[in-house]
Design goal:
The chain has two domains: about 50 residues; about 50 residues. The termini are far apart. With about 100 residues, the protein is mainly alpha-helical. The radius of gyration is 18 Å and the shape is elongated.
Length: about 100
């Protein structure tokens, strides 16, 4: 893994640690996920806006920009879902009660 790849995952892990801290403070996982997605959407909108010199140019590229980020997110989500499916027992601790119901 290159230094660049390591930095990529270190940044991602830092965001996940913040999300986990929110759950430790009592927020539900779904609430944290929704806030995380909103924060990412807000940051992505800012990131996109910072690359333009005029609002009209940003507006003209809006759909293309959304399509790009949705495609990228979908690929990352699919990759991580596959990872969790393949490593479910290692990653998720299911109580014996739930196992018996399943």
């Amino acid at each position: 893994m290159s230094e660049r790849d390591t930095a990529f995952f270190d940044r991602a892990d830092a965001f996940i640690r913040i999300a986990n801290e929110q759950m430790e403070k009592g927020a539900a996982a779904g609430e944290v996920s929704a806030s995380f997605m909103y924060g990412l959407a807000r940051y992505t909108a800012w990131f996109s806006a910072s690359g333009w010199t005029q609002s009209k140019d940003m507006a003209d590229a809006k759909q293309e920009t959304i399509d790009f980020f949705v495609k990228e997110y979908r690929q990352m989500l699919e990759m991580n879902m596959d990872d969790y499916i393949q490593n479910f027992d290692q990653y998720i601790q299911v109580s014996e009660e739930l196992k018996q119901k399943g």
